[in-house]
Amino acid sequence: MENILEVKNLNIDLITEKGNKKLIDNVSFNVGKKQSYGIVGESGCGKSITALAVMQLLSFPLKTSGGEINFHSEKESVNILSLKKNEIRKIRGKEISMIFQEPMTALDPIFTIERQIIEALKFHTDLNKKDMSDMALQMLKKVGIPRAEEILKEYPHQLSGGMLQRIMIAIALICKPKLLIADEPTTALDVTIQAQILDLMNELKTSFDTSIIMITHDLGVIAETCEKVAVFYAGQIVEETDVVTLFHNTAHPYTSGLLKAVTSLGDKSKNLFTIPGMVPAGGHMPKGCRFEERCNKKMKICKDKSPELIEIADGHKCRCWLYAESGDN
Ligand SMILES: Nc1ncnc2c1ncn2[C@@H]1O[C@H](COP(=O)(O)OP(=O)(O)OP(=O)(O)O)[C@@H](O)[C@H]1O
């Protein structure tokens, strides 16, 4: 499979008066053309800042401190990290779009829905006003908005959270981007609306041939939408594989913990399972495995030495001493 995005040894630092703290540590992954790639992990693992780096949207006190983010459009291949501001603007919103968790804060309360949808068209195309309005209308219909003509003239506060998220998707897709990054797109919504939005994204992915990076803390969302998954923990990838293997042949104890937490939600006879402890904060990483303190399979070596991300089976990578030859007690 050809790749649309190749992230190589990405490092992101937090700049502080006492020096820089590494928040993302040598993260590498590839997203295939037309593929849905999931990034999953608890809050604070570095999912969102990785996505912001792909859009070149990190701002002080965060900065990329190494690596490459190679984006392969139809026309050319570019390293996003080396693009100037005017160059990334041509890609952002056109070739790569992003949907955020909170549509209400991402939309501007003082502009109509129509104005917000055609903003990207104005910037990236030479279409006249009538054609832009027609496209906005068609797009609203595509994302399942009823009374689309009327809604175009309305303002964000007049619409429900589910409707606003559909509008965010319409804005993100209006220029037919090759890559769509969805950062917790359903977290703020009711469960039934969540399912509708995920169905819609799956449908649109097929009709627009878009690759998707789905960022979530919810393995249920991953199961519904993704083909390949990276599990993030404390600024590193700890497991990467196809979605079926992730659920049926789980390797990393952290992934097992996340899965156990989801399955215990559906079983009323059991207490809710949570992984004990917390994700270590950036700049305070332990010397050994970052998950060691919380791990129910830890060995002596885990405290002393950090494991590498290695291929444990075809296309299945894991960062855990359980799978390394030298991982004896
Ligand atoms: N603007 C910022 N200033 C300082 N630290 C930040 C900033 N943004 C993120 N961080 C830190 O970077 C780390 C990763 O944050 P990030 O938001 O990427 O996590 P996440 O996995 O996406 O979690 P969430 O789902 O809560 O957003 C965290 O330790 C967070 O505190």
TrEMBL record:
Pfam assignment, any one: oligo_HPY
Limits of the ABC transporter domain: 7-259
Subcellular location, record wording: Cell membrane
Topological relation to the membrane, as annotated: Peripheral membrane protein
Molecular functions (GO terms): ATP binding
UniProt xrefs under CDD domains: ABC_NikE_OppD_transporters (cd03257)
Swiss-Prot/TrEMBL keywords: ATP-binding, Cell membrane, Membrane, Nucleotide-binding, Transport
UniProt KW Calcium keyword: no
InterPro entries: AAA+_ATPase, ABC_Ni/Peptide_Import, ABC_transporter-like_ATP-bd, ABC_transporter-like_CS, Oligopep_ABC_C, P-loop_NTPase
Domain of life: Bacteria
Record PANTHER family: DIPEPTIDE TRANSPORT ATP-BINDING PROTEIN DPPD (PTHR43297:SF2), OLIGOPEPTIDE TRANSPORT ATP-BINDING PROTEIN APPD (PTHR43297)
Entry-linked NCBIfam families: oligo_HPY
Family: Belongs to the ABC transporter superfamily.
Protein name: Peptide/nickel transport system ATP-binding protein
Organism from which the protein derives: Sedimentibacter acidaminivorans
